[in-house]
């Protein structure tokens, strides 16, 4: 029987990077295959997902990336961001990322890029710079610049029921990626 860790990793890394970010059909597949797992596991503390580098990476995908697919344009898209970020921070602290491929490290670092905290965004820049992938670094810079300018991602306002701030209104829709 395949563990949930292997199931998540085999599924995600069985896709092409183009599918990760741009395949609308993927949303329903992830929801059907992993929605129940996400619901079951989301109440666990971050420390329970640090048994190995693979487990930590699978958990980051489960809590940071999969909700963006399963709940696109709904507040639940961000409901477990805090958990994904806590796991990523602890995994890096333990040096788990050192044994990962470039693609795996990019996914492990993604919660920093998704964070609305400027310190996390600064760390994202450092992590993606060290990764050496110019395309991923470009996106990390774009995310950082939005947080540096507004302190949050204005394009999430409607989804999260937040009122736009005057500077956000003046800037228009700010989604540079």
From TrEMBL:
Signal peptide: none
Pfam families from the UniProt entry: DUF924
InterPro entries listed in its UniProt record: DUF924, TPR-like_helical_dom_sf
Protein name per Swiss-Prot or TrEMBL: DUF924 domain-containing protein
